[in-house]
Amino acid sequence: MRNAGASIDPPTDPFEAIPKPSRPVPPGARGPSGVKPQGGSRLPPGVSPDIFGSSGFGSPAGPAGPAGGSPGLPPAAQPSQPWQMPAPPERALPQRSLRDEPGLMPGGGGGSPQLEPLRYEEPLPRRRRSRTLVLVVVTVLLLAGLAYAIPAVVMSGKMLPGTRVQNIDIGGLTATEAADKLRAQLADKASREMTLLAAGKKYDIDPDKAGLEFDVVATIDQAPSDFPSPMEVWRALTGTLLLEPQISVDSDLLESAVKSLAKKIDVKVREGKVTFEGVKPVVVTPQDGRILEQEAAGGAIRKAFLGPEAEVRLPVSVIKPKVTADVVKKAAADADKALSGPVTLTYAGKQARLPVETLAAHLSFEPDDSGGMSPSFDARSAIATVEKNLVDPSLAPREPTFQIVAGKPKLIPGHKGKGIDDKKLAGDVAEMVTQGGSRTIPVTLATVQPRISEAEARGLGIKEKVSEFTTPYDCCLPRVTNIQTIAKLLDGYLVKPGETFSLNGVIGQRDTARGFVPAPMIQGGRLIDSVGGGISQFVTTMYNAVYFGGFEDVQHVAHEFYISRYPAGRESTVSWPEPDFRWKNDSKYGVLVKTSFSSSSVTVAFWSTKRYDITSVPSERYNITPFKSETDSSPSCIAMVGQPGFTIDVWRVFAQGGKEIKRVKETTVYRPETDLKCVPAATTPADTADTADIPGAVDASDDGDTADTVVDQ
């Protein structure tokens, strides 16, 4: 049992769980059971205070209580006090005294003290401040929303204010209105020729032909077109939106325009070299080249179109020659020493001479890795005319060829043989050029293989005639002998696929040892006799076989004067060592050269595999130039019949299966032929007869070769 005395624990009210009245019971009031409370007793219904003794539990303490009441009874429980709640940080709770509670003041009815639960109430001024702040925020947000929404609605569906294309303001316009305005104000600029600057020169280009066009739709599409965002509205009200004009480009047209520009701008680098005028070395000074960077140039043109720049600079690269001018001059000095006289070749007690002209024709200089120039000698071509004087022809190799039997080519196999070691000879001549020494060079023999093996010849695709051409001549003249001689030398010659045929390289210098004779040729506008004169007619005949066979023309030079037996604009001359006649077999098949002649004409036919049908379309003659008349009393005079000069264009048309593939234009300019009469030294021009009445007079049509003056035309 707990100690009946004073307890150390807080006093406990056994009826604490019973609900208290919401207010004190007034004096004289009865409880629920009709019992009048004593001294504010709070006994539950049906409980008699007698169970606690004479003073009763809950009665005011009498003399017999702990202060004089009945012994052994517990003291009356003290009313429980609620826990004090801490006040909010801003403000402490007001302290309440017993004076503030009804029934706790003396004489307040004698009932038990009744305390209401304490409740926290926020002070009224703080609530007012919060409400004011919320009201301010809502107001600001509402005003901001209106400030955005009103201009956004106004701007919607139009170009935002401040929108510009270059200096053209399109703000506030619809897309259609903006497009019309841009087209109208940029039309002149878009069609104006652009000025391009390259290598210090100006060039013009038409934007339309270059495939450049102003794309107004793409330009406008850069601008916002939906309902504008707040940032877009702010920018429209305070700033500017600059749109770059957009363009559309036809890449093929632009590439073609740039290539056309490159043809005007590009300059091929000129390498230093040594050429020969006869046997005299001539220095060709090296010169820088330049090339248009076409891809970068196209980008620059594209970027500058409709731009503010007045001129567009195009990127150009400079190409440096491999050697300097001083190096070329030294090479020319070496060549001059080398050509001081002929070179004598010896073998087994036999001798053969290489004339200075042959040395000059086959000597060249090539840049080397050290920045200098090294001599190179084409020994194989140089010895073509003298090898038989040193080596028995029966030991020489034989090239494979074809014979035409019953209209079909039949292979005649070749075989290897003995010949001069041309590689060793080339080295010996190059050493003599640079170091000097003896001009007599002993040669050795080596096994020489044919240029084309039998197996290779069988795979050349030579199966049909692809072209043929014939030119006429008058019988029995010296020039006819030369035409027939060169025809014999070239009959059966094979040109391999990709090979370039050179007439001077194959035939070499014309000489009497192989049957060539003196005949007229053109030199300085006059006819003179020269060994091999007249073979230009054979060259013209072969040129037309090349022309109608569809092969590539590498080098041909027209006669100085027009010769009536040749087709105008489709003829060529040749001389030794220049000008040469060269053409390339640009097919994948071999070409067999077959020649034939009679007393009145010469024919050249090409056998291969046919690729094209070729036609020739000439223009009318234009730029007619009158001729002059002169007389000559020198013993070497050869009369000439005057005729006017003119210019003519000829188109070479390539076709396959009846459809045109391409056409190539060739322009030829003929000088007027002087009307020259040969007169005796003792007579006057008035006493001379017409050349038609002079026995043995030679017309210009009897010419053959063209000398150096033709090279300059």
TrEMBL record:
Residues 1-118, 685-713 are annotated as: Disordered. InterPro entries: Glycopeptide_resist_protein, Vancomycin_resist_VanW, YoaR-like_PG-bd. The chain crosses the membrane at residues 133-154. PANTHER family: EXPORTED PROTEIN, EXPORTED PROTEIN-RELATED. This is Vancomycin resistance protein YoaR, contains peptidoglycan-binding and VanW domains. Residues 229-307, 373-441 form the YoaR-like putative peptidoglycan binding domain. Residues 52-64 have a biased composition (Low complexity).
